[in-house]
Amino acid sequence: MLRLNNVSPLLCAFIAFVLITSGCASGQVKTAPQGYKVEVVEAEGLAPLGDDLGLARKNAINEAQKRAVESVVGVYVSAASLVSKAQMLEDNITSQTEGYIQDYKIIKEKKDNDFYKVSIKAWVKSEDLSKKLSEMDVNPKKYGNPLMSFWINEKIDSQSQNSHLAELSLMKSFVDAGFVVSDQKPQEYYSSASAILNDNTDNLQKLKADIVVIGDADSTFNTDQGLGGLVSYRANLSLKILMTATKEIITTKNTVASGIDINKPAAAKKALEEVAQKVSIGMPDEVLKYLKERAFSSIVIKNVKDIAQVKKMINSIKTFPTVKDCWVKNYSEGVAVISLDLKRGALDEVSKMLTINENFNIKIANSGKYEIEAEILSEKK
Question: What is the pTM of this model?
Fold first, then answer.
């Protein structure tokens, strides 16, 4: 047994501290459960020195863990969102660092002037972070603030109307959800909604809208019996929501609702408003979900070695003159999917820049209108 006779209390405290820290630093790192995705990153933490050396060390370790988590978050979130959503990220992720650290190992630690400095290697739960970021919806900018255009043909008792009641109600539901509505109407360019569906994607660009909502709303007399002098109308609304760039149908709806009022014109209009409100429930969220998954151009890069290479690739792409911003949509098993927000130009310009970037030798397997498939051959020295 080690005896500390005739040793000062201060020295005893110091020896105890060294034994504790040595045990922590040399402890084995636990492996993540099989199939669980983690990223290994290195990070550094600083904490002011005070009277309690152990507390300063603990704070420095906590700070290093926080920096490790932030490092992985920065791969999945655009630069603009790191600034604009900083408080949300702090509240939901970086303030809960321990939940995202699988384990860590101290690489180096020392006193540095008035601070205690710790360098760690951390195993960060990237899968958990990716899911949390998706749930938080931290980057609505990713969806491009798409312009929307509406064309709902309205009829009452088979007679065409110019009231646009259903159209305005639908439009309001999207505006309230943060969408932007184009001031140009599809009617300015097309004689019918079906003509939009049959046109090609190049011609559709004249709509100056990323998304167009087209449909028919019919309000017909139902009954005036047993309603105490009131009148009932029944309205049917069928619509399609279309991406003009790809002609993909985001969703289709067909809904029925009734309206009751003191006379036929009022009841007919009431039914149109009711059916539009009914069909709009959850529809902006449905469109947002689609945009999250598919709206932006992307680069699929194979043969990615680790998260460090992903970061290096992101930083390289951000220097391309046509790229406004980029972020990782997904990274798994050596394949990174990088979403792009372009300033101008087509995706083939990005493809050319990839082949001459200064960090990697890259082979382009395919370059389409909305996606580039590439492979890292080697890292440049």
Answer: 0.50
